[in-house]
Amino acid sequence: MKNVLKLVDDDDDDDADDENQQSWRQSIEKEIGKQHHTDQQSRPFLPPQSHEYPCKDTCKKLPQPPEHWPQRPLMIRPTPLSSMTVIGIRRATGDDYEDFRGFCAGCILPINNGKEAKGESLVVDFESKHFIGTLFLRIKQDDDINNTVEDGQNNQGDYFADKKRKFQAIVKGSFKTPLSLSRCMTGQLFERPAGPLPARWIVKSFIKFISILAPQLDASLDGNKPRFLTPLVATAQTVIVEDDDVTENVDCCLPPSGNGGRRLKINTEVALQEPSTIEPSSILSDLPTNSSLGINIPNTTTSSVASRMSVRKNVFNKIAAKENSEPRFETKKIYTFEFFQHLLDFSGDELALDMGRIGGMVPLAQAMDGQPLKILAAYRHNEGNHEELDTLWSFDIFHESLYPYALEQNANDTQEIQSR
């Protein structure tokens, strides 16, 4: 995935998980969607008709019932009406978009479970107004998730076996416009108010804990559109930068891809490692040391992975607090963002927040009112209007326990429309 990728000590990796990673999971709710697709035999060709985007279900509000989900109790889709286009589904180290059984680029995307045979993990290529890239998603499950491949090719090892984390998402791609780093956010956005929330002490403790890890947290639970947003570069567990040979001779803004996709390779067998601050692959290496930012960047060559992550997060939280338009993402670079967390549990009958021995498993479906979790990044246009966001990427993750609440909300919406 990068020339700096190498195996990371699992203890260091998941210590960072405990201390830093939770930013991704400022969690709980959001939105709309729909899915389905007839089963088809896996066969490679370019481009498969069933992977045209949008399909007939892309913009529908309610997902297909869980019995139609090929990876039940979970399902992931592109967020409807998010202005992001899915280009195709392929193997992580391959080039061809394939017609994988049960999946559709328009309405139902694959989830890897960490037990895929070498070379058989699936990725999703996508494009938005400001970003073009690739998503790789792994979620821990109690049972095998039938993925891309034929029977007998799974269970070649378990990515999650010796890790605390239960979720890993990697987004790799390039910016088409040089956006301000401090205005690019990640987190959760919801389209309607939350349902009944867990005990108040749990909610307060959760938000306080996230605020410590993500000082620039923009959180609102009691509005019409709840949200948890934090600066993208200060939130990701790993950030790696490399030169983009394809765009090295292209000036400033990149044109649309023409739906050809970047087809960036992701080596799912190798663990990402946060580079030291002086390595070219570090996003900190390009920041001027004596600049108006007034931020000191230490040399982390001899530091642990967790310490390197902490330095980057601290630096970019300070930059985000200043709300300066500089520094910016470069259009001639490829960026890799890794997110992982261990608090959200997807494996049971209920999507739950694992609060440990004190709080136990806290069910989330009712609190989220059937709205999905998001894998999301967005660009905030200006300081004055924090509601105005441009999608960089946005995917919805549904758990089966969310569906009854989503179904009820859909019925209420239908009744309201009919009564007008």
From TrEMBL:
Entry-linked InterPro entries = Duc1
Q: Map out region (Disordered) in residue numbers.
A: 1-54
Return the protein name. Answer: Domain of unknown function at the cortex 1 domain-containing protein
| Comp. bias intervals (Acidic residues) | 9-20
Where the record annotates domain Domain of unknown function at the cortex, the positions are 123-396
Source organism (scientific name): Fragilariopsis cylindrus CCMP1102
**Which Pfam family, any one of them, does this sequence belong to?**
Duc1
Give the compositionally biased regions (Basic and acidic residues).
27-40
